[in-house]
Structure formats: C-alpha cells, structure tokens
Amino acid sequence: MANIKNKVKDTTARNISAGAARKTGGIEAYLKRIFAMMFGAVALTAVAAYLTIWGGGLQHLINFQTGGLSAAYYLLLFGGVALAIWAQVRVFSMKPSTAALLLAIYAALVGITMTPMIAIALAVNPASILMAFIIAAIMFACMAMFGYKTVKDLSFLGTFLFMGMIGLILVGIASFIWPAIMGGAFGTIVCFIGVLVFALFTAYDMQTLKRAYAVIGEGQKDSLAVLGALHLYISFIAMFQYVLSLLNRE
Questions:
Q1: What's the confidence (pLDDT) of residue 17?
Q2: pTM of this prediction?
Q3: Positive or negative, the Cα torsion across 192, 247, 65, 50?
Q4: Residue 97's domain spans which residues?
C-alpha cells in the first residue's frame, strides 16, 4: 500500500511538473512571438525613415516655402493613427496574418512621418539618434522586465496612463498649430512626462499581456500577440521620440 501511495505521489508530481513546463513553454513562445513582431516593426520603421530621407521623400513632407509640414505629412500622420486605432478595435475579428500586415504598414508610416525629426537630429547632433535609441531600449527592457516579474497589481495605472496619453496627444496637436508652445521649459517638461508615461505603459502592458495569456482562448492567442506587439511598439517609439527631442533641445 505504501508503494502504491508513493507511485501515485510520484505520478502526480510528474504530471504537475509537466503541466507547469508546458504552461511556461507556452507563454515563453507567446512572448517571443510578441517581441519578434515588435522589433520587426521597429526595424521596418528604421528602414522606412532611411529610405524616405535618402530617397528624396523628405521634400514631400516639408513645405519649404513656409518652413512647416506639408499636407501629405498630416495625411500620413493621421492616417497612421486611424489605422492603429482601427486595428486595435478589430484585431480579434481578423486573421492574425492580416493584423500583422496592418502592424507592418503602420510601422512604415511611422518611419516616414518621423523623418523630419530625424533629419533635424542629423543636422544638429547625429550621435543623438543612436544615444536616444540606446536609452529608450534600456528603459524599455527594464520596464518590460519589471512588468513581467512584479507581483504588484499595476491595473490602477490604466486610467492615469490613458489620461496622460490623451494629454500628450492634445499637446502634440496644439504644437502643430502653435509650434512655439513646445519651446523652453514647457516643452522639456512635456518630453519628460512623455518618457514617464510610455515607460509605465510598457510595464502595464507587459503585465496585462501576461495575465491575458492565462485566460484567453487558444485560438485568439495569435491575435493577442499582434495586439501586444503593437502596444509595445508604440511605447518604444514614443520613448525614443521624446528622448531624442530632449537630447536636441536648445
């Protein structure tokens, strides 16, 4: 009888260990898929920016007569924003491959619309581009790890981060109309707030994605991975832009 009990215990322990291993392996593959798509989108953004600048596309984004941005720039900018919002709303009702394609298109549009900022950095301080990328990458990695590992519930941040993001968007829109508002101390404060908001968004999204994996249906995990890649991509690119702006402020 003792031998039977021991065998049952051993079998149960092995089954629990195997189940835990499968679960761990599943979430690891899921996160690898998310980061592969996210970093692929970042690479596509870099390529799109490079081709736009050195391919002569910059002249179509800047109105050299007024010194401002052209109508084509605003069309691409707001078109990309609309695409990202629509993709997030519809992601679970479309094929994962279609959602991944929309992510790629959005990443390319972001790369194109970033070129005026990149061109200014190249003219003022080319090294700041690499420095901003490294700083943003380190911050992203640290906050992603924190969000994945922490046992503290970060859901309380959701409302505050959403409000902060809306505020940053409104300031960004206002800066298109009155560029002078982003000068001086106010612009510096906005950039610091932007870095903080999207750094916290990285941790918040990582924890949310980790929890969602445990409850979402198996057939929706691929779509969730694309959505997670989009969210993390937006946070990383936003941090990069705000850091780059800080490094090139007068």
A1: 39
A2: 0.85
A3: negative
A4: 30-247
